[in-house]
Amino acid sequence: MVRSEIRGRVLEVTLDRPPANAIDRDVSVALYEQFARLRDDPDLHAGILTGAGERFFSGGWDLKAAAEGREDPSTDFGPGGFAGITELFDLDKPVIAAVNGMAAGGGFELVLACDLILAADHAELFLPEVSIGIVPDAGGAQRLPRRLPWFVAMDLLLTSRRLSAAEAARWGLVRSVHPAADLLPAARDIADQIAAAPPATVQAVKEIARRGEALSVEETFAAMPGWPAYSKALATDDYRETADKWKR
């Protein structure tokens, strides 16, 4: 269902639930457990999230469970919200999404909750919810207009149009596009680069970007001294040593 592996300082999480890597409450809780592990383990500095197989990253919410009456849009998906990360607002370690195939609905929302996105060249991302009478409220309507120009985001939200990996890269949503066989190695290279940096600094940068997204620049500057990851970074030996060098 959800597999994980530690490579050095990087936690790799694989959503493995054939045929479409669909997400129900149990999968959401299992994903949360991995993201909480990344958050809480000081030896882990970054994460990679991908899907098993080549056709689907994730088909999103488990519609079979919904059709059988086991779940509905009001379902409590556990800590971290849908997919275990869409409402995990205290995760200050970066997560890279390696989108190995189709990311539909909640699968696209899961991607949007990550910090960097790489995609296989055949991947597609789309939000079909409006066309079937569901609100994409696990990050689609909230995050997509912050990640893309307004008119592009609204086009995708309202028409359910499929976004190719290449177009997503042109808009800056996807960092890079790769042949399927090269996708995970590329994600690993980036994760290792991030994990090699001082972890407190990396976490401070994500905290500032995450918290500051809802604030003005002026408000962000005023609030930063009270934010825990930023304060921790300023107190590290790495910061002091660099600051001392600058003073000389």
| Number of domains as seen in the coordinates | 2
Name the CATH class of the largest domain: Alpha Beta
Provide the CATH architecture of the largest domain: Alpha-Beta Complex
Q: For the terminal residues, how far apart are their CA atoms?
A: 54 Å
What percentage of residues falls in helices of 4 or more residues? 40-55%
Q: Mind summarizing the main beta sheet?
A: 6 strands, mixed
SSE order, one letter for each helix or strand:
EEHEEHEEHEEHHEHEHHHHH
CATH superfamily of the largest domain: 2-enoyl-CoA Hydratase, Chain A, domain 1
In total, how many beta strands? 10
List low-pLDDT spans. none
Shape: globular
Task: Describe this entry's structure for a reader.
By secondary structure, the chain is of the alpha/beta class. It has two domains: 2-196, 2-enoyl-CoA Hydratase, Chain A, domain 1 (Alpha-Beta Complex), CATH 3.90.226; 199-247. 44% of the residues lie in helices and 17% in strands. It is built from eleven helices and ten strands. The chain has helices at 25-40, 63-67, 106-112, 140-147, 150-159, 165-170, 180-196, 199-212, 217-223, 228-234, 237-247; strands spanning 2-7, 10-15, 46-51, 56-58, 95-99, 102-104, 116-120, 124-126, 163-164, 176-178. Strands 1-2-3-5-7-10 form a six-stranded mixed β-sheet, sandwiched between helices. A four-stranded mixed β-sheet has the order 4-6-8-9. β1 and β2 (10-15) form a beta hairpin. It starts with a strand and ends with a helix. 41% of the residues are buried.
